[in-house]
Specification:
mainly alpha, elongated
């Protein structure tokens, strides 16, 4: 994890959980979009 200038890098655990939440949100959005296109 590269620290932003002036800010320390967040702990790996915090970063991993935030990334996992983002990934799940994007996954549900993409799955919903694909489902809409497939059913429509």
């Amino acid at each position: 994890m590269v620290a932003v200038q002036g800010f320390p890098a967040p702990p790996d655990g915090l970063l991993d959980s935030a990334f996992l939440i983002l990934l799940m949100q994007w996954g549900s959005i993409i799955a919903g979009t694909i489902f809409l296109f497939a059913s429509g």
